Amino acid sequence: MGQAFATYLLKPDIPESPYIVDVHGPSSYTPKDVQKAFEEVVGKEVELRLVEKKDLSQFFAGFLPKNVADAFTEMTIAFLPGGIMANANAENSSSDRVWRGKTELTEAIRELCEGSG
Which value, in Å, is the radius of gyration of the alpha carbons in the chain? Predict the structure, then answer.
């Protein structure tokens, strides 16, 4: 994300404010892909379970600081049906406002886990 922000902030002309860019990883992932990536990084089985929309805030608050839990809740709701990002589809977009990162999910999770210990 930092590379995307720097790239767009350093453009010679930003046509409007706010200038919105869709930031995506190099691939799309299913919940099972995320589960497998965590299992690979932590070296043990990881449970995949459904958290209802109404319970997201409480779920994230169980292991994240409040301000981070609030941000994760807002971000997650944005991608659920009816959310502002629910129909975002960078796969088929040729827009200059879509940024595709290069860091794969497993690598990002590994960096997060190594940085937390």
Answer: 16
